[in-house]
Amino acid sequence: MFEFKIHHKDKNSLARTGTFKTPHGIIHTPVFMPVGTKGTVKTVSQDDLKKIDAEIILANTYHLYLRPGEKVIKKLGGLHKWMSWNRPILTDSGGFQVFSLAQEKGLTKNTKFKTAIKIDENGVEFKSHLDGSHHYFTPEKAMQIQHDLGADIIMAFDECAPAQSSKKYFKEAMIRTHNWLIRCKKEHEKFSKKSQKKQALFGIIQGGTYKDLREESAKFVNKLDFPGIAIGGLSVGEGKHTMLKMIEKVTPHMDKNKPLYLMGVGTPEDLLECIDRGIDMFDCVHPTRMSRHGAFFTEHGRFSIKNTRFKTDKFPLQKNCKCETCKSYCRSYLRHLISENEILGLRLITIHNLHFLLNLMRTIQKEIKENNFTKFKRNFLRKFKSKNEKI
Q1: How far is CA 149 from the centre of its chain?
Q2: Taking the chain (391 residues) in consecutive chunks of 10 residues, what is each chunk's mean pLDDT?
Q3: At 328, is the secondary structure helix, strand, or coil?
Q4: Among 149, 232, 237, 330, which one is most buried in terms of CB atoms within 10 A?
């Protein structure tokens, strides 16, 4: 049921195009996945997502477990029926959210978590951010929840250590993650035998910002023979240069016939740099979050619609954009909507920003196919970083 095929390889980089077959459709890579944390991509409908040709979206296990609960979703036919989305879905394991809660509460200097969570080798105890109730996640629990949710691609439960952790703690977290991956795989195989649902379990590489740990984790995860592999624990404050160096340490140890997924990355600059280094899949809340602050993408960079220069501007957000927003509305009107906190403004800018990224990915696929990716990347970044005021 799951099959990854590589179609084109760029001659001057590690960029490549491919297809990943799932029960709910084929995903063309490189791919960006809009994030629907609580079962919805904020401010837009499933029809909006189909119109901009989103092939796959991401949902969050932690949030859906707490509300409405995975059993409710299972009873109603699983995520696809519940959300009325008949295309592929990926669910993360909830691990990042569990551990990020502790970081929000604060850490001591030796990176031992305060009372927000308690970690042991079996799993993690945490408090709900909704009502303070206590919960306990284990690798087995993460698999059970994700099997009930029924996404096409599910993620192993991992520990995402804070960026400021010591090397000693990064190693402890990595080893714990490796042990949890084995348990996740075993539990996933057990559930798969009992169910008619077909789900692909991806393993996750950890190791912080240490090259030797990243290499060790990459080799370990690769040997477990998952149908896809994710790189976790990056884009969490370590800096772009460090992030790219960690990716470069990981990719040589990966099975080249499997999709490689970089979690939590989604700016145009990062997408291009990481595709250059062999990444196939991405997700990030950035394009939807920036939309809610009135920021929008153009080929000349990011701009804020709140700027007074747009008060009487009759042009669309981007003059050559074919999204529904740009075909129908001018900057002046969009600025008015955002200034008045109108929900329509949030929706229209979100549609544009998601369309911009998805269209960028389609263009990248075309440029790789034509062996022109390196030149395209150079020209795109030069223009995007120019901040040309004459947009």
Answers
A1: 18
A2: 96 98 99 98 99 98 97 99 99 87 46 66 93 95 98 98 93 98 98 92 98 99 98 94 98 98 98 99 98 98 98 97 99 99 99 99 99 98 86 80
A3: helix
A4: 232
Cα R_g (the chain), whole angstroms: 21
| DSSP category for residue 247 | H
Reading the block at residue 276, the tokens are 């250059």
Which amino acid type is present at position 81? K
| Model confidence, pTM | 0.95
For residue 156 the two structure tokens come to 């192993």
Q: Are 292 and 42 in contact (CB under 8 A)?
A: yes
Instruction: Indicate the helix (H) or strand (E) that contains 383.
Output: helix 373-384
DSSP states of 273-313:
HHHHTT--EEEESHHHHHHTTTEEEETTEEEETTSGGGTT-
Backbone phi and psi for residue 164, each to the nearest 5 degrees, phi listed first: -90, 10
Domains of the chain: 3-284 (3.20.20.105), 291-384 (no CATH)
- 116 touches 105 (CB < 8 A): yes
The residue behind tokens 């290499």 is 215
The full DSSP string for 53-100 is T---EEEEHHHHHHTT-HHHHHHTT-HHHHHT--S-EEEE-SHHHHHH
Angstrom distance (rounded) from CA 64 to CA 66: 5
Distance of CA 128 to the CA centre of its chain: 23
Structure tokens, 361: 């990915």
* Closest C-alpha among 227, 141, 230 to residue 191: 141
Per the CB < 8 A criterion, the answer to whether 180 and 155 are in contact is no
Give the tens place of pLDDT for each residue, 45-59.
999 999 999 999 999
**Catalytic site positions:** 92, 283
Burial class (CB in 10 A: 0-12, 13-18, 19+), 205: buried
Containing H/E element for 31? strand 31-34
Cα dihedral 238, 242, 247, 249 sign: negative
Q: What is the pLDDT of residues 133-165, one digit of tens each?
A: 999 999 999 999 999 999 999 999 999 998 889
Give residue-wise pLDDT tens across range 98-119.
Answer: 887 655 544 333 344 444 789 9
Mean pLDDT, rounded, of the chain: 95
